[in-house]
Amino acid sequence: MAFFSSCPRIAVIGAGIIGLSAAYELAVRRGARVTIFDVRPPGRGASWAAAGMLAPAFEAAAEPGVHPQLFELCLASAALWPEFAGELAARSGVDVGFDRTPSLAAALDGGEAERLSRIAAVLSASGVAHTALAAADILRLEPAINPVVLGGLELPSDFRVHNRQTVTALLAALRATSKVTFVAGAAPLKSAGGKLSLEGHDAVLVAAGWETAVIKVEERGALFSLANWETALDDIDCHGGQMLSVAAGESAPMRVVRAGHVYLVPRGGQVVIGATVEPDRAIDAPEAEVIEALRLEGVRLCPGLADAPVAESWAGVRPGTPDQAPFIGETVMPGLFVAAGHYRNGILLAPVTARLLADLILDGKRGGLIEAFAPRRQFGGPMTLSSAH
Ligand SMILES: Cc1cc2nc3c(=O)[nH]c(=O)nc-3n(C[C@H](O)[C@H](O)[C@H](O)COP(=O)(O)OP(=O)(O)OC[C@H]3O[C@@H](n4cnc5c(N)ncnc54)[C@H](O)[C@@H]3O)c2cc1C
Question: Which of 1, 19, 140, 277 is most buried, by the most CB atoms less than 10 A from its CB?
Fold first, then answer.
């Protein structure tokens, strides 16, 4: 049963890939009217800073404390990406750089070889295709990798998209429809008698990345942050990340390659080298010594990049939660929905997040994954942070 009797108007707060994908699903694919608010230029938060890997396999071997269904959510979203990318490119006229060439995970030492074996075992148990590669095989597939490599995995489940182009395409598709209005600035949310409202709107979706908890609400003339209403949004925290890109010469990798904490992503004539994970840091600028250390890690993985000039370096902030999985669903306040906390997988998880929310907001569909990722869920054991993206 639908929540609303006629064409509803939904407010989306935050124009990152999560808010924009939700707005796209709600307005372009399902015909709702949507207002998108952002306090900064749209699309320039974490979604611009990301590398664009669509990498579910790296959630296969869940660490203690990680949401037990995160891998399932990642696989569900990866399955939606081909259609999402194709439709978006066709509507916007923007090439989103969707590339299904399987990623490679390389083991440069024994510890990494063991970790890849664990991931391969979970992938086998889950029926997810992958191929174990001897050193000679991985070097044949990607000659740019360091010849000291011990072996690795080929991962057809893991591919890539140009995340900046995707954000650009989403903005173009949304601007082309009269169903969507962009507002530069904060949404004037009000609260009275325990109810939250935004004039002219039937529902509000907060999708402001790591800043979601601090969105402001006015009550009796004073401003409070959303976290004050026991929305559970105060569980959203920040994890800084720094990255760089270098010019892609002849000895650059042609596909996504990763080893341990470092990964290389070919993108638009450059190779992105990522990334640091810096808990509790909302960094807005890269630090020279951190970038140089990362560059050297990238060079260790693909030595041919040693002399490649640095094209760009930058920093971004991943929105985290205690179990590294997003909040997707309705908060304790009726009509206030959330899509935030996508941590290292927000690009990958954008299509499934948009679908689940549109099902919930427009059709009242609950159950399954939407219940599993509800904002007021219980968290398991202690979390350990491991490999980046
Ligand atoms: C270095 C790095 C590498 C990454 N690599 C990958 C990767 O390879 N693959 C992958 O899947 N994920 C990756 N991620 C994670 C991914 O980028 C994030 O999970 C995702 O971008 C989060 O999207 P978002 O829309 O929630 O947040 P954002 O993109 O940060 O957007 C939030 C928006 O909300 C706006 N906002 C904030 N406060 C308000 C307010 N009060 N009112 C209105 N608007 C507001 C902001 O201005 C911003 O535009 C990476 C992240 C980093 C930092």
Answer: 19
Query: Looking at this protein, which amino acid is placed at residue 139?
Result: L
User: Residue 1: is its pLDDT beyond 50?
Assistant: no
pLDDT tens per residue across span 236-249: 999 999 999 999 98
**Ligand 1 pocket: which of 163, 167, 244, 336 to mutate (most atoms within 8 A of CB):** 163
Tell whether the torsion through CA atoms of 75, 382, 356 and 189 is positive or negative: negative
Question: What is the reported pLDDT for 6?
Answer: 74
Domain 9-92+163-236+322-372 fold: FAD/NAD(P)-binding domain (3.50.50)
**Is residue 19 within 6 Å of ligand 1 at its C-beta?**
yes
Which residue is closest in CA terms to ligand 1's atom 15? Answer: 344
Going from the Cα of 346 to the center of ligand 1, the distance in angstroms, rounded, reads 7
239 lines ligand 1 (CB under 6 A): no
In whole angstroms, how far apart are CA 32 and each of 8, 179, 293?
A: 5, 7, 47
Is the shortest distance between the CB of 47 and ligand 1 below 6 Å? yes
Residue extents of the structural domains in the chain: 9-92+163-236+322-372, 103-157+237-320
Cα separation values, 79 from 95, 218, 266, Å: 19, 41, 22
- CATH number of the domain located at residue range(s) 103-157+237-320 in this protein: 3.30.9.10
pLDDT at position 139 over 60: yes
